[in-house]
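Quick one:
INPUT:
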């Protein structure tokens, strides 16, 4: 049963990005400025799992001159092997940053023997908290220990984001149960919130906006005495963006484009769920045997994998539609077609003038802007997906 707690919830990390900072909504930034703005130039950042599955994990647009560091890593000391997604996208001067933090595996039970057992398995022992309280009381003080004069400026509950988290979690458990049916009753919950803070770092006042989604997996477990107690495995997943106070108005559009454009590969999510279910079902004890067996299963199920990949390409199967649905359900997102690479790019609404040369992307709120004239080179205009 310990394999289930905290492991399946890792899938919720992928794609749970929602910009809610500074009261800015898609399409409102240009209107608020009252004047034409400079075109925005981005490049496509694709993250692959090169350690294990060999699949694309996610892709996103980042400002062309910004630096991307991180990606996905696996902890092969655990079974199922556990993936961690963590990265930073940093401006050339190092002051503006988008950051995805590694997920956390937390557990709580009133029974000390269960606490000890799960602590030995790598879980943090902590009573469950809501997303806003967790950010304010636990995560932000730890993540920004060296910050001076830290103060909370805004706290916002995100009920729609929590609902999407719950829907994806339920879908994940359904896929898992098709391979390894649950032998016990469970309850699934979710919460989401954002907290904006201001603090001093290296003599600068910094604004940072944190967003957390938390999934809770609740089970009544038997104790040694035969009594049943409620246990909770909960997985916080957190990202943030930050910039100096005076720079945030100029950086918010870049944050907005990058965060809205992230697209997660549903094939990776489904494959990892199936891996967890297969390992749980077959109760393999040795890690090397687990890896070998999974490779055998992948070979024998190649036809199934081909079907899944075809599903990803065609966007036709219900599982893929669910993963695509929550990604594109972010507030005010339009999907554009890249005519050079023949893929879709999700962007905030309000930027109808979008161009690509196959490598870079330019967006402008000026209807007369043409990068072939302004920037040179060969650019093709991107149209909204119908």
């Amino acid at each position: 049963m310990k394999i289930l707690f905290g492991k399946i919830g890792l899938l919720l990390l992928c794609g749970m990005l929602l910009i809610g900072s500074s009261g800015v909504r898609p399409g409102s930034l240009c209107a608020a400025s009252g004047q034409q703005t400079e075109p925005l130039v981005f490049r496509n950042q694709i993250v692959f799992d090169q350690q294990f599955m060999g699949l694309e994990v996610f892709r996103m647009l980042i400002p062309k001159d910004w630096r991307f560091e991180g990606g996905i890593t696996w902890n092969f000391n655990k079974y199922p092997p556990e993936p961690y997604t963590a990265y930073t996208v940093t401006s050339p001067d190092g002051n503006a940053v988008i950051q995805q933090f590694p997920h956390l595996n937390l557990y709580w039970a009133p029974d000390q023997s269960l606490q000890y057992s799960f602590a030995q398995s790598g879980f943090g022992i902590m009573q469950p908290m809501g997303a806003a309280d967790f950010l304010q009381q636990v995560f932000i003080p730890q993540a920004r220990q060296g910050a001076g004069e830290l103060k909370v400026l805004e706290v916002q509950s995100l009920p729609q984001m929590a609902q999407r988290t719950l829907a994806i979690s339920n879908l994940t458990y359904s896929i898992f149960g098709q391979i390894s049916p649950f032998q016990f009753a469970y309850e699934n919950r979710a919460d989401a919130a954002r907290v904006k803070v201001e603090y001093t770092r290296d003599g600068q006042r910094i604004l940072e906006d944190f967003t957390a989604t938390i999934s809770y997996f609740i089970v009544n477990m038997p104790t040694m005495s035969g009594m049943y107690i409620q246990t909770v495995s909960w997985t916080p997943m957190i990202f943030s963006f930050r910039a100096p106070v005076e720079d945030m108005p100029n950086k918010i559009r870049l944050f907005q484009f990058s965060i809205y454009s992230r697209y997660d590969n549903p094939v990776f999510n489904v494959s990892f769920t199936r891996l967890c279910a297969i390992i749980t079902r077959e109760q393999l004890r040795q890690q090397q045997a687990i890896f070998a067996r999974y490779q055998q299963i992948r070979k024998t199920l190649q036809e199934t994998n081909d079907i899944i990949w075809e599903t990803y390409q065609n966007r036709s199967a219900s599982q893929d539609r669910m993963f695509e649905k929550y990604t594109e359900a972010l507030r005010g997102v339009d999907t554009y077609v890249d005519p050079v690479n023949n893929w879709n790019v999700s962007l905030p609404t309000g930027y109808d003038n979008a161009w690509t040369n196959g490598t870079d992307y330019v967006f402008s709120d000026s209807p007369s802007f043409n990068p072939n004239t302004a920037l040179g080179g060969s650019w093709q205009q991107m149209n909204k997906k119908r």
